[in-house]
Every structure is written in structure tokens, then in C-alpha cells.
Amino acid sequence: MSRRRCCGLVEEIPYTKRFVPDNQRNVAVSEILIEEIESIRLKDVEGLDQQMCAEAMGVSRATFQRILQRARFKVASALVQGQTILIRGGNYILKNRVFECLDCHHVWDVGPCEKGAKHGYEISCPACNSMKKIKVSDEGAKCTCGKLHQGGRCCGGMNFNEQGSKF
């Protein structure tokens, strides 16, 4: 009997959890686990190498490779066969999120989301009650999505310099 795999760390739950082929009803379903989607996000969207992906998820490189391989197979099969994709379940733990208030510059940690819990953006600053905040990534990048993009422009519309300060 194989041992239970460690939980993978996940940055956040995907907003959309169901993809249905056009003009299809009652088709076969391909279920993709949350940590499998995270592996695709880290490797294929963020472009990290496998070791960095494994470290971000808190698993070994070999385990990351297996998770990624299963995820890619499920997505490819669903697309080729016209199946509905459901994203749910799995063996994962959500990472804490760090926010910085834009008014008073207070930095605070928001624990992992749980079912029915607040996700961070609807929580006001504990120091000044402001709703103006930015997410701070593990690397210290600051913007509404937590990533510093090329040219300093965040997908949330705010501009930041290389140190994360607004300009």
C-alpha cells in the first residue's frame, strides 16, 4: 500500500470551477483537482521551472512532476473529447495571503480561505479600516494580484516600480 501524499500548497482557489463545451449537455465530466490546476498555473502560466514549482507547492520535484502530468492529461483529454471540466477536491492547503494597506501601510496576514470564509479583498485593514489594499507576494512584489508584471503594470490597473511603490 502506498503512503499518503503530502498536501500541496495552493495560492488561491480558481474563480471558475466549471468549463462546459459549447452546445453540449449531459456530456462526460473530467474532474481536475485543485492542486493539479495549481501545477498548471505555476508551470504553464507563471513559467517557473519544475524545482521552483515544487518548492512553491511544498512537494518534491518528482511529486510535482506526477501532479502536473496528471493535470495536463486530464485537460488535454477533456478538450479533445469535448468533456465538461470540473475543478474541485484534492489534497491541498491554501497558503496565507499578505496584504498592505495603501492608506496607512499596515501589513497583515489573512489565513487560508475556508468554505464560507472571506477571501481577503472584502476584509478591511485592521489598523485603519480602509478597504484600499494590495496583495504582497512571497517575493515581495506588490499589486492587486500579488505579482509584479513586466513594465510595472499590474493587471488590476495600478502601477508600481521595481521596489513595489506606486508611481
Keywords:
about 20% strand; about 25% helix; 4-stranded antiparallel sheet; 3-stranded mixed sheet; alpha/beta; 9 strands; disordered C terminus; about 170 residues
Outline the structure in words.
With 167 residues, the protein is an alpha/beta fold. The protein has 3 helices and 9 strands. It has helices at 34-45, 50-57, 61-81, and strands spanning 8-10, 18-19, 29-32, 84-87, 92-94, 97-101, 107-110, 133-136, 142-143. It has a 4-stranded antiparallel beta sheet with strand order 7-6-8-9, with no helix packed on it. Strands 2-4-3 form a 3-stranded mixed beta sheet. A two-stranded parallel sheet has the order 1-5. A hairpin with a 5-residue loop joins β6 (97-101) and β7. α1 (34-45) packs antiparallel against α2, α1 packs across α3 (61-81) and α2 crosses α3 (61-81).
Q: What letter string, H or E per element, gives the SSE order?
A: EEEHHHEEEEEE
Rounded radius of gyration (Å): 18 Å
* Largest sheet: spatial strand order: 7-6-8-9
Percent of residues in helices comes to 10-25%
* Strand segment count: 9
The average pLDDT is 78
Global morphology: globular
pLDDT under 50 segments (min length 5)?
Answer: 145-167
- The amount of beta strand, in percent, is 15-25%
Described by strand count, sense and barrel closure, the largest sheet is:
4 strands, antiparallel
